[in-house]
Structure formats: structure tokens, C-alpha cells
Write a structure and sequence with these properties.
It is a multi-pass membrane protein. Forms a complex with SecD. Part of the essential Sec protein translocation apparatus which comprises SecA, SecYEG and auxiliary proteins SecDF. Other proteins may also be involved. It holds the Pfam family Sec_GG. The protein has 348 residues and is an alpha+beta fold. A hairpin with a 6-residue loop joins strand 3 and strand 4. It is elongated, with a radius of gyration of 27 Å. The chain has a 4-stranded antiparallel β-sheet with strand order 3-4-2-5. Strands 1-6 form a two-stranded parallel ribbon. The chain folds into 2 domains: 227 residues, Multidrug efflux transporter AcrB transmembrane fold (Up-down Bundle), CATH 1.20.1640; 84 residues, Alpha-Beta Plaits.
């Protein structure tokens, strides 16, 4: 149960509506006082994600796993029939068959293991005999079926560069926030970012979304969104707690909880506004235009925006309070506030 010194909610009318409390930001939603519950929830989420990553792994795209890709105008072709023809030719199922685009722009993409020159020729001939694809010039020819090979080392190079960029990014973020605010806020922000990365990766593992270079790039972009949301909350907390050590009206935990409430509606609006254009991107760019790379970017960013909002509200600020309560001056101020309240209650 939350105590007054632990970030207890402000008094409010029981008839107050949920939306009224959200918009007024009165501190009625107890976040900091229930931080132990959120810590447990966070640890459970991390444990599930790490278990899936270690046991289930990821579904890597051709850029990471390596292999051969065949492409062909789709027309009205059914992808299951394409998979059956390829399997009959190779003697094994293709790793992935998908159709992207609409109308005349529809194409079928087939991903397989690395194929020899003879295997590529045999598979293309089998597909041509079955579907009679037409080239851009309007001729029925096997040339309408394209092929390309991708080495797994290319995806590894992308990942390596992304990890280097991530390390540099985290160092810069820590230094900036520690300089602009304080080291406790910098630590809480970095922990929230690490939670976002683990959770997003875990969801990809659990659901089985394909991991591509675009996914790796998208993962880096969502960190900026999460950091923005966290800094907005921290800025309000700093404003509320400025000069706190010289007062005895509210504790640091209570002021931090008030700051979360005052920015909660903004966080919700930012999340919704961030997700809507990504949904439009999926509908227009992927379903209509058939650009698969944009699907990878959109999915990872939608997942990241949701996890980023959770971490900035329910992890970063509660963790900040836990770190700040180790400060002797904050401890003394909290004790002074509680003692004053006890005295006032006794007199009453």
C-alpha cells in the first residue's frame, strides 16, 4: 500500500471522471507509490522476452541468414501454388513465399537457401512452365523471373555498425542528461532505453516477425522517441522538485508522482499521434504499393513506441525516485515532511 511519503495520490473527488483526472493532472493516479508492482511487472516482461530470445530465437530474413531470392510478376498467382512448385523442383520447402504490391505491380518473392546455378535454372524453368510470367516488354519468357543471392555477412556488418552506433548513442545520452539534469535521471533513462530494446526484440522473437536490416535501423529510431518522452517527464519532475529541500509540504516521491500525472495525457497523445501515421504507412506503402521494407520499419516502430511510453511512465520515473531516496538530503526532507504531518494530525 502506498504511504504519503512514498508518493501517495492527491485527494480528489470520488465522482471525478477518469478523463477529467487525466487532463487536469492532479496526481490522482498513483504511479510512484506503486513502483514495486511496476518493478515486478517489468522484471516479468524482461524474463519472458529473454527466455524467448534464448530458447526460440529470431526469424532472420535473407540478409542475415543468407540465401537466394527469386522474384516473378504475380498476376493472379496464389503463393501457396508457387511454394508447391518450388518445393517440387528443389525437393524441399522454400523458406518464405510472399506476394507484395497490388494490380500490375504485384510480384511474388521466394526466399530459399543458397542455390547452385543448376538449381536456380531448374527452379526458374519449373516456375515458368507453371505460370508463364510476362516480362515488362509484354513477352512471355523465363527472363521475367529474376534471382539474386545475399551473403549472411552483409547483415552481420549492418548489425555490427548498428551496435557501435547504439553504444555511442547511449554514452552521449547519459552525459547529456547527467549534465542537463543529474546522474540519477541519466541512469533511469538508460535503464528505460535498455528495457525498450529488450522488450521490442522479445516481441519480435515471440510473434516471429522477420528480422531484417530495416528492423535493426527501426530499433535505433524508436530509442529517440522513448528518450523524448522520458525527458519530458523528467523536466516536469525537476520543475516540481526545484527548491524541495527547503520545504516541508511534499516529499520528492509525491512531487515526482505529480510530474508523471501532469505529463501523462501528453504521453498518451504522443503515442497515439505516433502510431497513426505508422498505420497509414502499413496500409498505403505495404498493402497498396507493396514495399516490404517499409513494413519492417513500421512494425518495429509501432512496437517501440508502445514500450517506450510504458518505460517512460512506469519505469524511468519510479526508478528515479528509488535512486533519489538514497540521497541523505532527500531522506531528511522526507522525514521532515512526515514528522510535520504527524504533528498536524496529533493537534487535530
Amino acid at each position: 500500500m502506498a504511504t504519503p511519503g512514498d508518493g501517495a495520490p492527491a485527494e480528489h473527488d470520488s465522482n471525478d471522471s477518469l478523463f477529467n483526472r487525466l487532463y487536469t493532472g492532479t496526481g490522482a493516479f498513483e504511479v510512484v507509490g506503486n513502483r514495486r508492482r511496476f518493478y515486478v511487472l517489468t522484471l516479468v516482461i524482461i524474463a519472458v522476452c529473454l527466455a524467448s530470445i534464448l530458447l526460440r530465437g529470431f526469424s532472420f530474413g535473407i540478409d542475415f541468414a543468407g540465401g537466394t531470392k527469386l522474384t516473378m510478376p504475380a498476376g493472379e498467382i496464389d503463393k501457396d501454388r508457387v511454394a508447391a512448385v518450388v518445393e517440387e523442383s528443389l525437393g524441399e520447402e522454400p523458406e518464405m513465399v510472399q506476394i507484395v504490391g497490388t494490380g500490375n505491380a504485384r510480384i511474388v518473392e521466394v526466399e530459399t537457401r543458397f542455390l547452385t546455378t543448376d538449381e536456380i535454372a531448374a527452379t526458374k524453368n519449373a516456375m515458368f512452365e507453371e505460370f508463364q510470367p510476362v516480362t515488362a516488354a509484354g513477352e512471355t519468357s523465363v527472363e521475367a523471373i529474376g534471382d539474386s543471392a545475399r551473403s549472411e555477412s552483409w547483415g552481420g556488418q549492418v548489425t555490427q555498425k548498428a551496435l557501435i552506433a547504439l553504444a555511442v548513442f547511449l554514452v552521449i545520452v547519459f552525459v547529456y542528461i547527467a549534465f542537463r539534469f543529474e546522474w540519477q535521471m541519466a541512469t533511469a533513462a538508460i535503464v528505460a532505453l535498455l528495457f525498450d530494446m529488450i522488450t521490442t526484440a522479445g516481441i519480435y522473437s515471440i510473434v516471429g516477425f522477420e528480422v531484417t536490416p530495416a528492423t535493426v535501423i527501426g530499433l535505433l529510431t524508436i530509442l529517440g522517441f522513448s528518450l523524448y518522452d522520458t525527458v519530458i517527464v523528467f523536466d516536469k519532475v525537476e520543475e516540481n522538485t526545484r527548491g524541495l529541500k527547503h520545504t516541508a509540504s511534499r516529499t520528492y516521491a509525491e512531487e515526482a508522482n505529480l510530474g508523471v500525472n501532469q505529463t501523462l495525457m501528453r504521453s498518451i497523445h504522443t503515442t497515439v499521434i505516433g502510431i497513426l501515421p505508422l498505420l497509414a504507412l502499413v496500409i498505403i506503402a505495404v498493402w497498396i504499393l507493396g514495399v516490404g521494407t517499409l513494413m519492417d520499419l513500421a512494425i518495429v516502430q509501432m512496437v517501440g513506441i508502445v514500450t517506450g511510453t510504458f518505460s517512460s511512465v512506469f519505469l524511468a520515473t519510479p526508478l528515479l525516485v528509488t535512486l533519489k531516496q538514497r540521497d541523505p538530503e532527500i531522506k531528511r526532507q522526507t522525514t521532515k515532511v512526515l514528522a510535520r504531518r504527524e504533528k498536524a494530525e496529533a493537534l487535530a
